[in-house]
Input
Amino acid sequence: MNLDWLDAFLIFGAFKVVEIMGLGLLVHLQLGLTRVANFGVVGFWGVGLYAFGVAHLKVDWPFGDPYQFLVCAAIATVAAAAAGLVVGWLISELDDDGTLVGTLGFATIVVILATTQQGLTGGALGLGGLGFPYDFGRVKTHEFTWLLITTAVVALIFVYAWRVHRTPHGRLLIAVGANEALARSLGKSATAARLRMMTVTSGAMGLLGAMHGVMVRSLEINSLDVGVTLAALAALILGGTARVFGAVVGVLLTVALFDIVIQFYLPIPDGWNTQALPVAREAVFGAAIVLMLIFRPQGLLGQMRRPALMRRLHGDW
Amino acid sequence: MTGEVVRPQILVRDVTKSFSGRVVVDVDELVLGDVPVEGLLGPNGAGKTTLMRLIMHSIPLDGGTVSLSRPGQRDVVLSSTRTSQMAGLGVVKSTQVITDFEHLTILDSALLAVTEARYERPFAAATDRAVRKRHEDEIRHWLDYFGFHDPLAVALSGGDKKLLDIVRCLLLQPAVLLLDEPTAGLSEDRTERVKAAVRQLASTGTSVVIVEHDLDVIWDLCDEVIFMAEGRVLLKDDPATIRANPTVVESYLGAGSA
Ligand SMILES: Nc1ncnc2c1ncn2[C@@H]1O[C@H](COP(=O)(O)OP(=O)(O)O)[C@@H](O)[C@H]1O
Ligand SMILES: [Mg+2]
Output
């Protein structure tokens, strides 16, 4: 494959776009449908990243890649899913404020654990030595291939989210989010519904974390930054929390704009990329969230359009 | 105790409930369901809604027990059962305050009520249409009956939401149906439909308990009437006797309306 035309930074920019899109889609299921406000996205993603890294580097597996990757990615997914189940259970009796503090607290705990468990994680120094689960020569080809594989995973997440809207499962999530007491009176266990959803979506966040670990080939404490949560939330809120395309549109207008368009196609002075731009990016994302919540809380794509969807599914009624 | 009753019954025993120190419900013993349709009367604030909520265990009891007896089945202590399990036991309640699921259409509500839990898991394979097929007849029956001409829309008016609440209850095929002011705000025509539906349901073995401010509905429908005031059950008798009772006339019906 001749990839000379492709800038390595562009691959990373695109990877970030795809990754945040995946997280945004999962937050859409949590916040947009079920009304669970998860402010600890980076925590679930980070559990996946670190579980993957530690499993990969600290365990002497009797087999090599791609099996080693698959096993470690499965471990990462299960670890994050378990975290989702536990956190979901801990916050199940709490109100919105409690959910916010609880999920934020969870993400903080993940950072603290990753920092203090030096023997496992390398602590603040981090750990190198992760790599791609294949080998065909050039690094750029590896990275580009990984971008494609991650895109495929995120496409699957999109299909899943899209399908959730069209199944009884999605209806239950919307019902539980909209009116928990009424859902209970219809015989629905609101808690079980939320826990299942949290387990599945958190597991997928963990898988994305593992995929991230492969791409950057190391564990770094700095990657467990609240910016991950912020980017996913900003994108989703901008696009529209209740729409499955909300995260897609939102990511294109936020992460893609900053990490691809501005970084590569605007003539900005050297040094800005590493210093001023990341700060400006977080400030703009934060401001975007605040402005949207004030002026258009339903996001650019607007409210859920259940009647239109139901007409498509049950038009012959 | 198993299967000694002829219709589903609810037994309320020594149930108390206070809000901020004020006793709102204090019922020594009350059997619901020894006749097909029972009316629950009492002035505003008598504790009717709270009693129904206590039966559904949607608010915690301060003391006492509520249990359910059904013909040929084991008794169940409702006061130690979760609200989300009530519908599975056949105990169903409509709400006094207009309530609905934001965003969900009328058909969504109906489908939600009938869908079994195994189809609602994250990776359940069944499509929405497959689930709909299983219950289409009953849903169509009730939506048509109450005149929902466009079930693919969201219920907008208070009356529609109120009726939809009743449709959801009916689709759950209740053994015991608690109706909290089901016809409040409904047109005369729709009120008649609700009444007819209640009669039909009761004739097929459901025990119905109905709180209603429209007394004509009570006198029309009920085989027995319970009179509550200040959290206590004061009277339980046939409608004619209740209607003539001076306490009821004075404290509830007001001069001249009996
Ligand atoms: N959640 C609550 N918190 C405080 N007081 C309540 C609550 N629910 C009901 N009450 C009070 O309990 C009393 C009985 O209310 P309710 O059961 O709704 O009466 P009814 O349905 O007979 O009109 C009223 O005085 C009401 O204000
Ligand atoms: Mg009431």
